């Protein structure tokens, strides 16, 4: 797929996300941003994210804001290739009310803070408590995943 076609697909996805949010009465820009870590994969059927805290789940990703250009650049540089997961740390709004995507949890990614090849230690149990890895607090839910950040 050429860069023009990829950009066209991203613009369609962004328009669909904006439309879905509007029809649901939700302004995507008003959703709180959270810092999340996990693995991001671009596939033929969309962009997907497996959060470190919920590796058994796969969340739909809509790129917005700075993340659109950041992921496009990473693809052009060969750091993101279709079907190959990469480790990502980014700010994103978590939607668990089926606001965007094919149903289920979804992200509106706003900015990529880190993107690199995955390692076995990415989502490990024994990590420095000062890292910014996301964890679900005991008794928490998707709405409490991550660390809220300012826009």
Approximate helicity band: 10-25%
Would you report the number of β strands? 6
The percentage of residues in β strands lies in 25-35%
CATH arch. level architecture: Beta Barrel
Q: Which strands sit side by side, in order, in the main sheet?
A: 1-2-3-5-4
Q: Classify the secondary structure makeup into a structural class.
A: alpha+beta
Q: CATH fold name, please?
A: OB fold (Dihydrolipoamide Acetyltransferase, E2P)
Quaternary state of the chains = single chain
- Mean pLDDT across all amino acids: 74
Low-pLDDT regions = 6-23, 125-151
Give the termini distance in whole angstroms: 33 Å
Order of helices and strands: HEEEHEEE
Q: What is the domain total for the residues?
A: 1
Question: Which CATH first-tier class would you pick?
Answer: Mainly Beta
- Helices, by number, come to 2
Tell me about the largest β-sheet: 5 strands, mixed, barrel
- Spatial extent as radius of gyration: 15 Å
Q: How would the global form be characterised? A: globular
């Amino acid at each position: 797929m050429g860069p023009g076609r990829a950009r066209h697909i991203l613009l369609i996805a962004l328009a669909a996300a904006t439309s879905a949010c509007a029809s649901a009465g939700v302004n995507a820009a008003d959703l709180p941003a959270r810092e999340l870590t996990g693995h991001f994969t671009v596939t033929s059927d969309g962009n997907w994210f497996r959060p470190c805290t919920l590796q058994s789940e796969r969340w739909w990703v809509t790129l917005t804001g700075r993340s659109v250009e950041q992921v496009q650049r990473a693809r052009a540089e060969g750091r993101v290739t279709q079907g190959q997961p990469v480790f990502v740390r980014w700010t994103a709004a978590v939607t668990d009310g089926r606001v965007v995507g094919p149903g289920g949890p979804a992200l509106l990614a706003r900015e990529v803070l880190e993107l690199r090849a995955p390692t076995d230690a990415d989502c490990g149990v024994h990590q420095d408590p000062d890292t910014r890895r996301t964890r679900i607090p005991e008794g928490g839910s998707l709405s409490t995943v991550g660390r809220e950040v300012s826009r």
